[in-house]
Amino acid sequence: MYHMNCEHVEVRAVLRELAKKMKSSRDEVTSQGISMSLHGLRNMSSEYDEVRAVINELANKVIVANEELSAQHIGTALYGMRNMSSEHDEVRLLLLGLANRIKASKVVLSAHNIGNLTTHSLAYSLAYSLTHLLTHWLTHSLAYSLTGLLTHWLTHSLTYSLTGLLTHSPR
C-alpha cells in the first residue's frame, strides 16, 4: 500500500479485510514484518476506523513478538507511524508494544541512527507540509483563474451574441 492513502473507500475496504485476516492469524510477526507493516501504513491517518483496526491487530502481534528489532527495523517502524496520532488508544497500544520491543532489543543506536530517525521524520514532515501547502495554493489559484477566465469569456460571448441578435433582428 506504498503510494496509497486511506481517503479512498476502496483502500479502507482492503484495510478492513486485512484487519480481519490479521486477527484470525496465529502466526507470529517477525521484526521485518513489524517494520514493513508500519512502513506500508506511512500514508495512512489514524483518524480512520479501518486504519486503527489494522494498528490494533498489529499492536497485538507486536506485544507477543519475540524477535529482536534492529536499528533499521526501529527506524522504519517509527517512520511508518508519521501520520498516526497518539490521541487514539490503538496507536498508544502499538507504541507501548514497540517501546517494549525496543527496550528488549540489544541494539545500540548510534548518533547516526538517531540522527537518521529524527532527520528523516523532520525532513518528511517539512516536505509533506510544503507539498500540501503548494498543492492547496495551486488548486485554489488555478480554480480561481479558470473561474475568472470562464466568467469573462461567457460574459463577452453572451454580450456579443445578444448584441448580434439585437442588431440583426428583423423589425
Structural summary, described in words:
This protein is mainly alpha-helical and 171 residues long. It has a domain of 101 residues. The protein contains six helices and no strands. The radius of gyration is 26 Å and the shape is elongated.
Write the layout of secondary structure elements.
Elements: H1 9-24, H2 31-40, H3 49-64, H4 71-80, H5 89-104, H6 111-168
Give a summary of the structure in a few sentences:
With 171 residues, this protein is mainly α.
Task: For the record, give the distance between the C-alpha atoms at the N and C termini, rounded to a whole number.
Answer: 70 Å
The count of DSSP E runs of length 2 or more, i.e. the number of strands, is: 0
The percent range for strand residues is: under 5%
The gross shape turns out to be elongated
Number of helices: 6
Notable traits:
171 residues
